[in-house]
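Hey,

Quick one before I head out. I ran the complex with S-adenosylmethionine overnight. Inputs first:
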Amino acid sequence: MRRKARRGGARQVELTIEGLGALGDGLAKLEGRPVFLPQTLPGERVRARITGERGGAYRGEILELLEASADRVEAPCPHFGPCGGCKLQHFAAAPYEDWKTQQVRQALQRQGFSPEVLRPLHRVAAGSRRRAVFAATKAGGRLLLGFNQRASHRLVDLDSCLLLTPALQALLAPLRQALSGLLAEGELGDVAANETAEGIDLCLVSPRSPDLAAREALATFAEANDLARISWSPPRGEAEPIAQRRPPRVFFGGVAVEPPPGAFLQPSLEGEAFLTQRILDYLPDGAARGADLYAGCGTFTLPLARHLRVHAVEGDEAAVAALWAAARHADLSGRISVEARDLARQPVLPEELNGGDVVVFDPPRAGAREQAEALAASSIPTVIAISCNPQTLARDAAILCQGGYDLIEVTPLDQFPWTGHLELVALLRR
Ligand SMILES: C[S@@+](CC[C@H](N)C(=O)[O-])C[C@H]1O[C@@H](n2cnc3c(N)ncnc32)[C@H](O)[C@@H]1O
């Protein structure tokens, strides 16, 4: 692979960009093979260098823009390009929205759905991202903090990021300083940052447990920056608190939840509110019983529990414990039941679901093939699918439709501005 990349590296070509790939890179053809060229737009003519080759496709980088698209705009962020966070800041708003919508339309059409089910894209503004996972490393004695470039460990050191909420933005500089004692030269770490109602909750992931001096420095940093909590975790291990100044809390349907360190939250409050409202709007009249699968800490379970009894299923035990503690504290334990379960290995079966009125499911990017197959064999009248991947949403919807459901509508929600990613909410009924 490395040899190919070097050989390709010598090669310069002139290319016309024919479209955009699924993740937002420009797409050209060379000798009948696709070439992915970041920061280019359809219709543009570029001089490019081929930098590598993988899976029958070339990757390249632009050396000169020979003919620019009329849809090209000035990227607002100085880090755009090398930073792995954004792909499409150089794309004007209207064609950008069309392209995002087109991603969903194509995914649906590939599974045989009519484009008529597609509703208009709802956009969430930049500057609203309250959850982010940063990569960190130490190189040449300097601590670098930012987003990894896709499929690479190259890290662009960020001093600002237009995606983040102001509170997370303001934390970048002091955080970089505070992490200095945590990583040795060349070591890689991650920082999961969640902005909660009680302040920022940070979970640092690094190979070595911080020594006493590093822990003291991190506790001082938490104090100086008024963090709610800071924790440390080994990769794929259990998090331990370093300093908790206030319990971090988020509110779902008005109920306070204390998420575990590094917990999944919807990336923006506005996106969360939009999805929650859609789910509530889709509830069938008189619904009394339902299930929330891939429930996380209860983002949708708790608002749903105001209207019906909900069984919440989630694979992460810490998230399940957080949801259950919140439900009990809010006197909702009679309306909510919880279960820690791996839904890929052990999907909730039709006989467990039947008798319910609605199922909400919100799997990770890989989708919920096994759970969709079980749902397809159930008699649940209304299914609401949330997804961050148009391909797997369309696939799972197709599985449900083979079992007798109709896909009624799909709404794309752009809560990942300037990236190739999208959130979706879909309504299915039998
Ligand atoms: C996209 S998140 C959605 C969480 C929640 N609905 C929310 O909006 O906050 C997907 C969730 O699925 C959980 N998950 C991933 N794989 C799983 C599996 N095999 N079984 C059960 N849950 C799983 C993750 O822990 C995560 O909480």
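The CA atoms of residues 160 and 170 lie 8 Å apart.

Talk tomorrow,
K.
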